[in-house]
Amino acid sequence: MNTIDLTPLYRSSIGFDRLASMLDNALRSDTSSGGYPPYNIEALGENRYGITIAVAGFAEDELDIQVERDVLTVRGRKSDDEQERNYLYQGIAARAFERKFNLAEHVKVTEAEMRNGLLNIHLVKEVPEAHKPRSISIKNADAAIEHKS
C-alpha cells in the first residue's frame, strides 16, 4: 500500500486540519466492510443531493443516522432475536454495518425515509447569504472630483 506523509500540510496550513484528516482517512480507507451495504449518491438538483443505501432486512428501529462535525454516519445492527434463528442457509446479509459520508460545508440532512428495503437520505446545501458571491460596484473617482469643482 502506498503511504503519503501529510505532515508538511499540517505544518504550513492553518485551519485546514479537517481537510488533511479527510485526505488521511481516504488514503487509509478500511476495505474490511467489503462494500456492504451498497449505496448510491446522486445529485437531485443544483443544491440537493440524495444517498440511497440498500438495507434489505433491516427495520427502521435497527438503523441509526447521526450527523456530527460534518460527518454523516449510518449504522445498522440487527436485533438479538434475529441472531437466535437457526438458518440452514443464509444468503441475505444481515450483519452490522457502519457507513460514513463526509459532508461539505453547509450541507444539511433534511430527512430520511425507508421504502422497499432502501434507505433514502435527502440532503440540501444551504449557503448563507454572507458566503454567497456578491458584486462590488466601482465608483469613478475622477467624476466625483469634477462635480466638486
From TrEMBL:
CDD domains: ACD_IbpA-B_like. Signal peptide: none annotated. Gene3D superfamilies: 2.60.40.790. It comes from the Bacteria. The keyword Metal-binding does not apply. SUPFAM superfamilies: HSP20-like chaperones. PROSITE patterns: SHSP. The keyword tRNA-binding does not apply. Residues 30-141 form the SHSP domain. Keywords: Stress response. Belongs to the small heat shock protein (HSP20) family. This is Heat-shock protein. It comes from Aliidiomarina soli.
